[in-house]
Specification:
alpha+beta, single chain
């Protein structure tokens, strides 16, 4: 192989475009098949993209931060000779076209190293190490990429650095592999804020794209398509917190995270047996209510890039230790921004845990394609009446939003009451 261009693939769910978030390779690097060459952000998540080719990176065709359509060439990989002194040819030059036609061809965005000498007869594009990535050229289709040496960082760290005004090149990583994490940002210098008094100088704008764009569109579509009804119940969950303490001592649960969310998840799965319409959805086009005989349990997760709702497939068929492990993995992967598109598709019911932020409850918006979402509020120690005596108890509020086109008040109330009864006394789960 002389060279091959790797085109942006559809990583799942019919996605049409993605943003190049981070390049993990530079021109001259040797890569093997399945080596990660870049992170891309789709409308649903950040995904690591492996190389389908082995060889030497000849050119990076798309700069970081640019959004391109599926099928666009993003990187060229070829034999070592092209990167070891021989000029890398553009597609036009390789075809023997004239210099004039080559100049008007689609761009070949090469990223030479700051320490690499230019090949004879090639155009010098070497930049100083401290220079940021820029696009240079005489027009939108004549662009070459110049970039500073690679800074390796977790996607969550990159997002946090942008929000805090931190230049990642000034951050000293603690990890041996040189990858910057959010923990490394604490000691990093912040950029000074713009002077006050001039409109716009103390403001910043970020394009609405990727996960945040998809989230916004989905929430608007849901809010103005499905008539939402929200019901609330405040309950004593002391027995649930006591159960959690006991479960943490179980050997089969010792290696997973065990908390009230696990008990709530199980309670929802059990309550659906009595009220299966909660696990259905309204198909407007077919004018049918679609009932699911399985539960793909979604957990709303806040990430630096926006809200995502990964789901545990067939959660109702899992034993408690397996459910705990699945929920644990789902949350960790989501916070790292690495949720694969398959984990985001096909959800049937969602739990959003606002209690992790100390919030009592809320009126959540139903995830598109579902019929209900349960909001889990903060558990707080409060005075509570037990046997005509006021005693301190663990108390929380649950709120359920449901699609009132087909889920009536009786069904929504029964489901919420069943979930509440299990949290108040987990032994009642034996009745379901």
């Amino acid at each position: 192989m002389n060279s091959a261009e790797f085109k942006l693939p559809d990583v799942g769910e019919g996605l049409t475009e993605a943003e190049i978030v981070t390049w993990h390779v530079a021109v001259g690097d040797e890569v093997k098949i399945n080596d990660i060459v870049c992170d891309i952000e789709t409308a649903k998540s950040v995904v690591e993209l492996p190389s389908p080719y082995a060889g030497v990176v000849q050119a990076l065709l798309v700069p970081e931060g640019e959004t391109v359509e599926v099928g666009t060439p993003i990187i060229r990989i070829g034999d070592a000779g092209a990167a070891d002194g021989a000029p890398v040819e553009t597609p036009a030059a390789a075809a023997g076209e004239s210099a004039e036609s080559a100049e008007s061809a689609e761009p070949v965005a090469e990223v030479p190293s700051a320490s690499t000498e230019p090949a004879a007869g090639s155009v010098e594009q070497i930049t100083e190490p401290e220079q940021p990535m820029t696009l240079v050229g005489s027009g939108p289709k004549e662009a070459a990429v110049s970039r500073r040496p690679r800074v390796l960082a977790k996607p969550t760290a990159r997002a946090a650095a942008r929000e805090q005004g931190i230049d990642l090149s000034s951050v000293v990583p603690a990890r041996e592999d040189g990858v910057i994490t959010t923990a490394d940002l604490a000691a990093a210098p912040r950029q000074a804020p713009a002077s006050a008094g001039v409109p716009g100088e103390r403001e910043r704008r970020e394009p609405i794209k990727g996960v945040r764009k998809q989230m916004g569109q989905a929430m608007v579509r849901s809010a103005f398509t499905a008539p939402h009804v929200t019901e609330w119940v405040t309950i004593d969950v002391t027995r649930t917190t006591e159960l959690v303490a006991r479960l943490k001592q179980r050997p089969e649960l010792r290696d997973v995270r065990v908390g009230p969310l696990l008990v709530l998840a199980r309670a929802c799965l059990l309550a659906m047996r009595r009220t299966p319409i909660i696990n259905s959805f309204w198909d407007e086009e077919a004018q049918e209510v679609v009932f699911k005989d399985y539960v793909n349990l979604g957990i709303a997760a806040a990430t630096p890039r926006g809200l995502v709702v990964p789901n545990v497939k067939d959660a109702g068929a899992l034993a408690l230790p397996d459910l705990a492990a699945a929920l644990d993995r789902l949350v960790v992967v989501a916070r790292d921004g690495k949720t694969p598109p398959a984990d985001l598709a096909g959800g049937t019911f969602t739990i959003t845990n606002v209690g992790s932020f100390g919030v009592d409850s809320g009126t959540p918006i139903i995830n598109p394609g579902e019929s209900a979402i349960l909001c889990f509020g903060a558990i707080k120690r409060k005075p509570w009446v037990v046997d005509d005596k006021v005693v301190p108890r663990d108390v929380c509020t649950l709120s359920l939003s449901f699609d009132h086109r087909h889920v009536d008040g009786e069904a929504g109330s029964r489901f919420l009451a069943d979930v509440a009864s299990i949290l108040e006394d987990p032994a009642t789960a034996l009745l379901f």
